[in-house]
Amino acid sequence: MNSGKESAILFDYFPESVVDGSCELEVGRNLHNHLAELGEPLQFGIREGMVEAFLVERGFSGVQNVTAEEFKKLYFHRANKDREVCSLYYFAHAVIE
């Protein structure tokens, strides 16, 4: 273990399918291809539905996963309520107990 008790991690991530190019959504394939063309391919993704297991295996608990839909409901109001949010963005938070 490299982190002290009550340490936290907060990060955004893409599904593994975007990183490996197998995403069924056009936006996912476009993102994958565009970043690869720029010489900056995505290096890391987490299989959909597996973020909790991924973090628990690494010593974290209290895992919270926020989907793009949930993020939009929480933060996009008033003038931004109709703003499009890419469905491929996820956010995760967890702590070391």
TrEMBL record:
InterPro entries named in the record: SAM-dependent_MTases_sf
Protein name: Uncharacterized protein
Species, as recorded: Methanosarcina barkeri str. Wiesmoor
